[in-house]
Amino acid sequence: MRSLARFARRHNLISHRVYAFDFWGTLTDHPEIRRIARDYYSRGHEVHIVSAISPGLDMDSDAAYTQILDQIGVPFTAIHRTDHVPAQKVAILKKIKADCFWDDTPAYIKAAAEAGFTSILV
Predict the structure, then answer these.
(1) Are 99 and 19 in contact (CB under 8 A)?
(2) Buried (b) or exposed (e) across 20-39, using 16+ Cβ within 10 A?
(3) How far is 72 from 76, CA to CA, in rounded Å?
(4) Residue 16 and residue 47: Cα distance in Å, rounded?
(5) Which domains does the chain have, with CATH numbers?
(6) Residue 17 to residues 27, 51, 64, 113: CA-CA distances in angstroms?
(7) CA distance 39 to 6
(8) Predicted TM-score (pTM) of this structure
């Protein structure tokens, strides 16, 4: 049984994960975070973009995000846009059942951590 567990870990058969990344200020500004997101995606994990943006701005569309994500080389599972309210980001994290959340804004990290999510301040 022990060798089966080792085989499953080695071949990434255990623990499909859901990772959530903020867009502005996190993925856009940190090449090392982009590398982490690419690595997770290449290993078969989900990479969700969870971004706060004021509704109605030119960039408030999946097409605009997708264009930038393609330019910076970040593959993704889905894009989730919300207003600038920490509880709204937390609601998205709950909906997607995120295992880990990366953001550059302390208020979002604090809210996510208080909701029980592993949260990393960039």
Answers:
(1) yes
(2) bbbbbebbbebeebbebbbe
(3) 12
(4) 11
(5) 16-121 (3.40.50.1000)
(6) 19, 19, 26, 17
(7) 21
(8) 0.85
pLDDT in tens, 57-89: 777 788 999 999 999 999 999 999 999 999 999
Long-range CB contacts for residues 37-41, cutoff 8 Å, separation at least 24: 37/74, 37/75, 37/76, 38/73, 38/74, 38/75, 41/74, 41/75, 41/76, 41/77
Q: Where are the alpha helices (DSSP H) in the chain?
A: 2-10, 31-42, 62-72, 86-96, 106-114
Q: Where do we find the tokens 């301040």?
A: 121
What percent of the chain is modeled with pLDDT above 70? 89
